## 1
Amino acid sequence: NINIYNMKQIINILIITVLLSITNNTFSQDANVTIKGKLLNNFYSQIYLDNVLNDIEIANTTISTEDEFEFKIYLERSDYYRLRLDNNAYLILILAPGENVTVEYDINNSYSSKITGSEGSELFYETYSDANVYAEQLAEFTAKIEKDKKDYYKKTIEENPKSLASIIFIDELDIDSYFSTYQLLAENMQEFYDYNTYAKQFIDKFNASKYTAIGADAPDISLTDKNGKIVKLSSLESEYILIDFWASWCKPCRAESIYLVDAYNTYHSKGFDIYSVSLDKVNADWIKAIADDNLS
């Protein structure tokens, strides 16, 4: 008789045998597809290849210090695949057996990526790239209509600054582009309707927005530096100051660090400075990040 322990052993052996069979079928046969790639604007260290329909990772590899990678795999038939850096950064590939594929993947703009050696993938991205012309034309037309509509609201408000109806119209305009219209309406609401709840809410909103509107003086931020010393924004005497909000866990923010350092080194002597504001909750995290990114 086979006891329960022996039965479990037999089942485990069968499972391992099946898994090895599947693995050998995928990887042990001679590779018939090669994917060589170059990443632009890269800050990742690992890249993965998935089967899209099965949602299964079939291979992964380390990205070189030159931002290059290579896959050699065996495929039985054409299918959809995903060249993945993370769940938000990936390329869709339509691969077929026998293809030697080269990829230039721009992480900041995946549809501008260049793919050769894969007929399905080339058709996919070339078509989307060509069709983007229509999207641009539509965007230009839509922007013009939207601008005309906002200008109409602006004209109506400025012709009727004492009307409570104008408070409703003003929500169609952004304060940065139509600051003078906001100011005109706020002054009239203050003068004639300081008793009205909606008018008072609009006045409060306008007064608060004045501090962050384009062209307004920035609030005087006070934060501690890596040594615990309080540094005020107003203490910087440069003519041009970039206020940079970032965090150690924000990969795109960290990727921009090299460009910020370059800009600072190039233009600091000409009156340019950077006031960097970390959104990290733990000081040690951003202190380590600025050391790793050669920030000061």
## 2
Amino acid sequence: LRKVRNLGTPLGEYVLGGVYPGVRIDPRSPLLIDTGTKERLIAENPGAAAIITPFLSEEELGRYLSPAATRHLVVVLDKTEAKKYPAVVRHLLREKGATGDVQRHRRRGGGEPTTSGAGRWYAFPDTGISHDMFAKPKIIFPEIAGEAGFTLDMAGHYCPDTCRIISTSSLYLLGILNSRLTWFFIRQTLPQVRGDCRKLSGPQFENIPVFVPDFEDPDDTGRHDALEALVQQMLTLQERSARTNDSGDVQRYRLQIAELDRRIDAIVYDLYGLTPDEIRIVEDASARDATSG
């Protein structure tokens, strides 16, 4: 552990503090809608597509899997003119079931609904981070996890505060985070929660050491590029595996994924300079975790 820590830069520093929580929102909020409701609202008011975004749950996240949301979030920012989206306003008012708000809305001739007091109850929840941060490519993962489950989101998904995001699309970092060595480090240094899970947030998580390549060193550059290439292959294979129902294809993809994992782990071990004996310690611990899990 000391060797790994000494050879790496803390994750929080590596991403310039760019580790953030998702949106704190009640799962019953009228701002969360299913796909059928989304399609209906856009059919009634095509412009509404601009303020309806895919919203993931932690259950919809998987290691190297392309996120696929089954719900959507209505995102109304302070600068948004809600009157441009009458179908959405009507839906929100109906779902909220706030009679007083509906009456005030009607008395004002159908303008923007408000609650008593300042602000709009349907406004985008305050997350402390920019709305644009969710729209950008990012690494996304569950906050509480029993195994590595980091993936890349290129489609601008939002997520609840039971998930975390890292504001980078680095395939290199994704490979390190999903490696056996990093999960070994996490299990050894982060406290247990909910049985045998770990909480992937806070100072301890952000202290995970990330090896920073020296791009003037051909060996470092080669390992960096090789790792990124393997992770890209992994993302492609995982997507193909998730889409097939053919048992033969599933088995073939599983074997290919296992081989890619082995090659990714080998590069990560090399980055941190692990000896064969040290690698054996990590591999044995990983095998025990798999058996107990």
## 3
Amino acid sequence: PAPCPYPDRLNDILREVTAAIHTGFGYYNVDAFLVEDDVAVLAAISGGFTARTKPGYRQPLSQGIVGWAITHGETVLSNDVSQHPCYVPGCQQEVVTKSELTVPIRVDGKVIGALDVQSTELNAFRYTDAAALAIVADQLALASKNALTFASLEEEKGRLELLYDIAAEVISSLDLDETLNRAVRRITETLNGQIGYAFLVGPASDELTMRACIVAGVAGTPAHVDKRLLLGQGLTGWVAATGQSALVDDVTQDARWLYVDALDRVVRSALSVPLARGGEVLGAITVVHASPGAF
């Protein structure tokens, strides 16, 4: 088959994605597809179907659950594929598939592919699985768009692996603040940051509220830290408003940086990434450091 017209860097990331999802979530089979003209091209696969299905397999967008999800830009959750009008086996071995969950990958409003997971059991998936996979898909889309923000592919892979873990925690935890604190701590530690915090869009859509903060590995917001921002205010507000990641080597040279208290005056570098679900930006996580160019 003809090669998929995407950089090897993205294909490498997708291989890491499918392997991490297969291992971390325990799904029987995980596929990542990319769109090429009017077909979906299998870019990566991990799990039970790897023996007979290899990257490069091509499926028309007019066929199958994957094709429907990509064409319509919507998640498909089928807990009995024999009853789904769009289902077609992608290969001979896939006759064992009983349940399937497909989530589109969208960049700047355009669907560029899909994550697809399958199970040999009926009723294998819950809506929490769909929500977690959507988090991975959205953050994957942002990672592919902003790949040049990061210094190397290994750093990008590490960031994505961390996001898979966070998505898995969404399934297991009903406590949003607890989940966010764990997420911020892990991101801050992975990036060797000194302070990390998460802001979410509040009930008033023009305001962000701090929901998690980690200072030197300890959860809790210092009393003098402003816990609210306007959407678009400061670097974190800009990221939440635009849905774009931001890497700043020296905040003193960036007009978006907002000095709100004495703590911020020692900050020199910052990295902020949006939190997104289903194409909607929910907030942002920011990690800072006292040294310039720390990230």
## 4
Amino acid sequence: APNLGDLFQSNATAVANIVDPVLNAGYQTTRVTSGSLDLDPERADTRAFGLVLQPAALPGLSLSIDYFDSDIADAIITPDAQVLINRCAVGEAALCANITRAPIDNRISEVRVKPVNAQVERTSGFDVEIGYRRSLDLSDRIADESLLVRAVATHVRERVVDAVGARFDYAGSLADATAVPDRRAYVFVGLQSPRFDASATLRFIGSGVLRSEWSAADIEDNGVSSVTYVDLGATFRPRLTEPLELFASVGNVFDRAPPRAPVTTGTSFLNTGTNMLLYDTVGRKYSFGLRARF
């Protein structure tokens, strides 16, 4: 359903750089962004099924696989001013109502941008999870040790967005805020006891492309390499009767640099050369401290 901003946002006026396909010229115009009371609720059809196995021959082991498939119709989107101009130029008369041209030179004097029910979204894929827990007897001095292993992997087959006549499949595209890795995995291995915990975590993001709609005519190298991060952590409780913990951790142990995945839209001068929403831009980092409860 539309939120308050979608419905009641007041007019916000700004200057926009546009390319006018009618006059074949680029210039600046006025963009007015506002809410819309004409929005309808979004509709979604979701199909999901899964299988869970817990074999009696291997106590503590759990395996699961889930398939998901979701379609969203009439999804709400606020199209860019240039998108409205381009779609109007190819004959979508309903969008032309948002564009005002000056009577003298036919230049666009104002573009009114507001949310519309014009987007169709579809996503599907698989989730796989493996869990294992086992009690250990490593030392007579430490009781109740246990080994915990958990691995989760996701494969996104498609993440298609059809908005105002433009169709994109974001699965495997790794640039910009719309990035959707088509392969991700997370593995956790932990040793737990009443006095001491230790853990190792692996995070994997698969390879992909900057943007799936680009070809060799658009960019020389559209590929983005995969990356794997390893994190380590430990917690020590000196006395079981006191709510005191000492902890330490090392993130990105092997100091893996992020792959080349620059932002291709938006504010270019803030571009760090990689997608900060996906990748570690700090490098190896250490933390340690003391926790106490009162």
